[in-house]
Design goal:
Radius of gyration: 20 Å
Distance between the termini: 47 Å
Strand order of the largest sheet: 2-3-1-4-5-6
Oligomer: single chain
Shape: globular
């Protein structure tokens, strides 16, 4: 095996609900990004650090999960879309993830047309290929390549794991030669405090409906290490509208308890330690239009 080392960024972009976060978690072999059936769950860049090796040497593939690209309305929306395109612009390779079952919808076409302007390699990754008839895949690939010629095409199921190894095998040697940017035992640059907030927000997305999850953000207020190895975590669920507060809490506090119980179980699993989780709900009007708060989320507003 060669002694050469490679390191580079591969940005995963696409329309909402294409499966970007599911793909990141599958490629990384661990949950790094939250997922839900609702679109626009991902709000900021999430980094996954994946080691690969072969006869060509060793590589550190830095996978960047980005927010879905859609028509923005709020400052938060605009910052999310900006983060997605910035991630693609900064990457060595762009992975354009397309929901094969959904096909070439208007938002998919718009993204593909913009990718035509980039000078960096773009790979087409068709996801959810297990959900459509195989004879439809090649025509879909041809239509997308007619919009933008892609350097490579991969057909995968991020949910079931099919096609993932082939994609990983291609990513390693495609990274530019250079030293590793992160310690070899790291999987992400995301802090445990941020992970805790995201896992709670994931449960808000899963257990509430309509506009409520989109008007909500979660902040970690207290992180206290205990002598027995456990951790006390206090988080605030902030809602944009006062009426959303009652919905999050639920009758007799039932929904807040359910959100907390599910999040506590998930966080203890991810941290591999006991977690004492405490949640409060705060009305914070227009948080999604506050520049400083968006910067705290890792976004750069216009």
């Amino acid at each position: 095996m060669s002694d050469a080392t490679r390191c580079g960024f591969a940005a995963i972009i696409g329309a909402p609900n294409a499966g970007k976060s599911t793909l990141l978690n599958r490629l990384a072999g661990q949950k790094l990004a939250i997922v839900s059936p609702k679109p626009q769950t991902t709000r900021f860049r999430v980094l996954g650090i994946v080691p690969r090796e072969g006869a060509w040497g060793r590589a550190q593939v830095l996978l960047v999960d980005t927010p879905g690209i859609f028509k923005p309305r709020r400052m938060l929306d605009r910052a999310m879309v900006k983060a997605a395109w910035t991630g693609a612009g900064d990457a060595d390779i762009t992975l354009f993830l397309v929901d094969a079952e959904r096909g070439i919808a208007d938002d998919v076409r718009t993204i593909a047309e913009r990718l035509r302007e980039t000078s960096k390699p773009c790979w087409l990754v068709l996801n959810k290929v297990d959900l459509i008839d195989p004879p439809k895949l090649l025509p879909l690939t041809a239509k997308l390549n007619a919009i933008t010629p892609f350097a490579e095409t991969f057909m995968i199921s991020a949910e079931k794991g099919s096609g993932i190894e082939r994609l990983l095998d291609a990513l390693g040697p495609a990274m530019p030669e250079g030293p590793f940017l992160y310690p070899e035992d790291e999987l992400t640059d995301q802090t445990d405090r941020k992970l805790a907030a995201e896992i709670v927000r994931e449960q808000v997305f899963r257990q509430t409906h309509e506009e409520v999850p989109y008007g909500t953000t979660v902040e970690t207020e207290v992180w206290e290490e205990k002598p027995d190895g456990s951790v006390v975590v206090r988080l605030a669920i902030c809602v944009a509208r006062d009426g959303q507060k009652a919905i999050i809490i639920g009758k007799g506090g039932a929904r807040l308890k359910a959100i907390g119980a599910a999040a506590r179980t998930e966080l203890a699993k991810e941290l591999d330690r006991p977690v004492h989780l405490f949640l409060t709900v705060l009305h914070r009007p227009n948080w999604d239009e506050e520049r400083d708060r968006l910067r705290d989320l890792g976004l750069e507003p216009d």
